[in-house]
Design a protein that fits this description.
This protein has 323 residues and is α/β, with parallel strands linked by helices. Helices cover 37% and strands 26% of the residues. The chain starts with a strand and ends with a strand.
Amino acid sequence: MSLRIGFIGVGGIASLHIESLKRIDEAEIVSVYDVSPENAANAAERTGAQVMDSAEDVLDPGRIDAVYICTPQFARGNLEELAAKRGIHLFVEKPLGLNVEEVLQKEKAILESGIIHSVGYCLRYLDTVQQAKAYLNGRQAHLIQAYRFGGSHPARWWHQLDMSGGHLVDAVTHQVDMIRYLAGEFQEIEAKFGRVSFDRQQAQGTIYDAGAITFSMEGGTIGSITESCLSVHHSSSDVKLFGPDFFVHLSNNGFTLTIVDENQNETVTSAVEPYFEQSKAFIDAIIRHTQEPVLSSYSDAARTLAVTLAANRSSVEHTALQL
């Protein structure tokens, strides 16, 4: 069985999905579209797909079975709803958008349609993250510490808060999602963001250069997230969970796992490619007509988005917000 795949947006992140799908026998990329004709032509050359005239032209149920939407979060429009209406299975890159109400409307359309849907929280597919999740089953951390430091995205739109949502919404969302996946739902969040360096170096942008977020979770766990997208000499992406008799540390964006308790002090490194595992699960779900292989549904991703957008709002309103 060959599933016909379309792509809307074939920039950097889409390239990772394309390379993964090329390794899956059941998947065939047949249609691509990008606002950059050069990007579209390059993707077509790599895959043998046809370049379409518009995003809507990609969403032809007579031509494709599933679509990957990899456009920036500000440029989605009603593409997800249109795919759902036309019965086209849907993979969407994170984050889902910049407005929770709009995302929830899309969620409703997707769920009512019955299509298979997946969102690009690829770190859930790491064997290390799965091992951590299994270990934490039945255990509760009392403290969670997470951080993500590194450089900025080169695109001009990414530096505009109303187009990207900032580093937290766009990138640190992976750490927020990992916390949710491993430890449950957020209950309250409070955030402070700053622009000390960006104000001097890049006054035309509006995103923050650093953030400090505190939170509580439904089970009583408390924690913090610190982040910066202007850390050129040090990069790190970690989640640490502290329990009364255990310590779990996912470092290197989840690729390295350390578990320490009275019986073990073990560090392992992931042996899988998360983008490949993610696409394989999505294709498998379509073939089997079940959401079961998909580890991040649209609904799940909507909850992660709500946490990050609440943090942004908390900073503006100078108050803690309930989730």
